[in-house]
Amino acid sequence: MEIILGQARRRWSEDEKRALVAETFVEGETVHGVARRHNISRSMLFCWRKQYRQALKCTAPASTSISFTPVMVAGPEPARPPTSPAPPTEMPLIELEFGRNVHLRISGTVDPDLVAAVMKALPRR
C-alpha cells in the first residue's frame, strides 16, 4: 500500500494519454500491466481508453461502408448407404466338468460374481 500525502496531482498531456492508451492495445499487453508500470490507476487508464474510442467514433468518416463476407451454405451431406451389421459371431462358451454327473456350461457374457456364486453352490465330491 502506498500513502501519498501533500503531493500535487500529476497532470498528463494528451500525447502522454494517447501513448499510454496505445500501449494497452499492443498484443499481449494488459491494462493492468501498463497501469502498474507507469504507476497510474487502472480505472483512469480504462477511462482514457473509453474517451479515445468515443473520439474515434466522432471523427470516423460518414462514408465508411459496411460490407459482408460472402458465405456459402452447403447442403446436408449425402446419405451413406446403410452398412450391414457385422456377421453374428459365435457366443463364447466355457464348459466345466466337476466329476461324473456335474457339468457347468457358461455361454455369452456373464457377470464373474454370478459365476463364482454358482461354482460355490455346486455340491463338492
Ordered list of secondary-structure elements with their pairings:
Layout: H1 14-24, H2 31-38, H3 42-59, E1 93-97, E2 103-107, H4 112-121
Antiparallel strand pairs: 1-2
Helix pairs in contact: 1-2, 1-3
Number of helices, where a helix is a run of at least 4 consecutive DSSP H or I residues: 4
The proportion of residues forming helix, as a percent range, comes to 25-40%
Let me know the average pLDDT. 77
Strand order of the largest sheet: 1-2
What is the CA-based Rg, rounded? 40 Å
Order of helices and strands: HHHEEH
Largest sheet: 2 strands, antiparallel
Spans of 5+ residues with little confidence (pLDDT < 50)? none
Descriptive overview:
The chain is mainly α and 125 residues long. Among the domains are: 14-59; 90-125, no CATH class. It is built from four helices and two strands, in the order αααββα. Helix 1 (14-24) crosses helix 2 and helix 1 packs across helix 3 (42-59). The longest helix has 18 residues, at 42-59.
How would you concisely characterize the structure shown here?
By secondary structure, the chain is mainly alpha-helical. The protein has helices spanning 14-24, 31-38, 42-59, 112-121, and strands spanning 93-97, 103-107. The mean pLDDT is 77.
Which features does this protein show?
mainly alpha, 125 residues, elongated, 4 helices, two-stranded antiparallel ribbon, 38% helix
